## 1
Amino acid sequence: MDTTQLLKGVLDVAVLAVIENEDGYGYDIVRRLRAAGVEDIGDASVYGTLRRLYTAGALSTYVVPSDGGPHRKYYAINDLGKQMLNQQRASWAAFAGTMSALLSPAQTTKAKSAATRGAKK
Amino acid sequence: MTTPEETTKAIRDFAIKVRAALGDLTQEEIQDLTDGLEADLAERAAEQGIAFGSAAGYANELRAAAGLSAGISTGEKAESSNDEAQTRKPRWIPITDQVTAWWQGKLSGNPLLAKIWSWLGNFRGFWWVLRGYAVFLLFANIYSRAGLLPASKMQFVFMVLCLVASYVLSRKFWGRNWFLKLVASGGHVLTVYATFAVVLSAYGWQYYQYDTRYPSNNYIEGLQMNGQSVTNIFAYDKDGERIPIVQLFDQTGQPLAVVRPAQTQNGLPVTWGQNKAGDPLTLTTGAYNGLAPVWNAWPLLQTSKWPDSFTGKLPSTPLDSPVDSVPKLTLTTERLLPNPIPTASAANPSATPVASKKPTGTPKPSAAATAKGKK
């Protein structure tokens, strides 16, 4: 299954969760997502998501000058961001539970046998 | 293995291309999306090398994730096909996008510059008004004579249009439409030119401009003598007696008149002038050809001292002459000798007179009179 498509729907919550642990700048967040196992993610998708979350008021930013190199823009989660994260956590848990139950092999077998019984009647 | 210089160049080039591909967004949006881009790319390059892939693809991914539709600015209507618009784009478009991208890159790499730029952004509204007003001043002064404020309803409407256009120009309305972008680029060039022209003229360049402009355009308003406006003429005959009214013509037979008298106040045609003391006067002509006022019939009549107190009534008292006394002239039909030419004077009737032309008595400049004078 193409996980890139699946990721699109949950990138917001993934990014918020990463930033909740610790403030971070663009590439740092990409790196942490990858380290957490979210590997098929494009850098630009993460940066775009950061910008959108910032525009939505879920993140605040500050600039940190770096020695010798270009400055870094750090993102930090704020109260609205935390609220959003908690809501999305709940939605995800409910959705993931439903999907897991639906897709578990036992469930699939039960459904199949129910369908066979229905056909016999 | 890539050298640090190659890496830096690759990062810079890629960042410029990404910003160029986002060129249809507002400066703020581009800045938000690409702030820190170089730093992120540098870190990525350190881990994965400089194969960044397609800049356009990167830009599209950025804008899609940020919720900014391809090829449009926030809240504006989407165009059907971004790719199609890209391919039809004339060659000069990337240049403007790249200039924008180059500037964004500078801002991104220099926090102090970025701070100053963002501080200047506070005066954006002031700049919009200034450039709109500058365009108004430029055109109003080219096509008619205006002061600092609109002199008529038309000029007022024009000024408002200029201000609105200046605001619209700041709204990045063109998106990916190259024709609108061409119009907008023209608008930007014009507004910058107008602002420079107006600011420079405020510093005294107008004198230079007027001096060179008038002779080339033959645009001298009214009569002039030694650079001063002549707003009234008093005529005397050879005996030094005032001629109540005289019609004057120049060497080509043109009426010698105020060029632009045609304003009407309270039903009378008026023009403006000054008296001997330099006070402003409202003047009218007492002479008509049928219903048309004749403006080369001198002197003009003084109707009120101040232009705004004009009542529309013709003056009942004759106009005072600015000259106390005029000498009586002695006339000769002989040609003047080149030898000492004493000044004609009533007190010295034996002196050789200066006047050589015999008055013909006709108001029109006749060829005969001219010929006689030239003999």
## 2
Amino acid sequence: MKILNAGLLAGLLAAVLVTPARADENLLGYLSGAETLPAGAKEAYLWVTNRRGKGTGHYSAFDLEGEFEYGFTSNFQGKLSLKGLAVDTRNILIDAYIPGDRKFGPKLSGVEGTLKYRFLSPLINSFGLAGQVSLSRGWLDPYSGRDKNTTSLGLDFLIQKNFLDDQLISVINLSNENTYADRSPIAGLPPGFEWPTEPEMEIEFRAGTGLSYRFAPRWFVGLETFYETEFETGVGQERWSWHAGPSLHYAAKSWWATFTWMRQIRGGGPPYAGQTDTRLHLIEKTRQEFRFKIGYNF
Amino acid sequence: MYENNLHWWTLPAIVVTAVAGQPAYAVQYLTVAQAQKVLFPDADQFVSQPLQLTAALKRAVERYSHVRLLADTQPVWRVLQDGEDAGWFVEDEVYGKHEFITYAVALDSNGGVLGVEILDYRETHGGEVRNPDWRAQFTGKHYGDELKLGRNISNISGATLSCKHLTEGVRRVLGIFHAALK
């Protein structure tokens, strides 16, 4: 495992440091603008997201993502991502979702390919519009850290409108992700614990909006919010949640960084047995997330 | 069950440490004096006449240019050649993606653009606006002429924001001339 962790760390660092970033700069942590890289430009990112708080026990998970992005034309870009996961959960038992304690450092958890096409530029047209399609393959459940094979197809519409000489940037994102999921059996489950292993389909929708304002040279402050809901085989609407939080973005010549605190405001769907705060969805989601992104231009 | 753990902050800490030591990236291509010499090679005198931008003046210029005037004073020089008026030299700044782009516009006595020079460019990308052919698109433009990126001012892919803001900046300088210098 140490070798795997060291390899993953080296791979993610190499993705960021060896391949220096550009115009598709992430001003916000969760929502995206409609701009694309110039033709021939390359950008590399590293994301770290910490999801924490289930309302009981201890739950902390880290999603890692190393990305390489390339501009094929000034309107069309592609991206390849390597994903990693670390989970630390103790004293939480959620039927069908979290079967017991688990703790491991970063493991490779999936890969993703994304294509983005810009139909309208926010700098030339009255607003920007881009479409994005992504295909991903995963093999770890991001909530429990257990084995789960997933194949997902995502579609996003990204709208961007700039104000105040392009110093105030607003975005609207409309997204859909369809996932085919298949979990592996687990030995030694607690008596009566349900752990479905039949393949299932998950259909997720997300709608969000955000603002980012440059308040000083190189510095942007942002606010974003989104609503997310998921429908699942045999369940119907499994969950919904509404999130909001601030972002701080800094850009230097060849690199930029964004830090975001995202809090779940309200949520719904069946609570887990013993859940005290039923205003939130805490089976799959957490109370809050912290995301740090860094990009390097070259 | 419990396996090797890696603290979550390790990766960003390493990356930030690795990149934070990079040098500052402002590039000064021309000083004001150098730009004056380039734009008015035969002039013998540049008389500084900073322009106070009153609220009324700002409103008039902003209405024309659709770009805000952020400062209260505009650096302007009257240009003399053999004791005669040869035009105006206007220094200005527009937003880049992260920093300001400092540039200068040379105007003849009738307010026609003689040339545009980039003085300081502090952005990673988009420096192609220094291309003489791109800047030459402004030569001969007057107040009232259309200056619109993608329409009669061509865009440079990868430098769209710089192209847009410099185009708007030149339009603003023409607005200043019309409102206060003609």
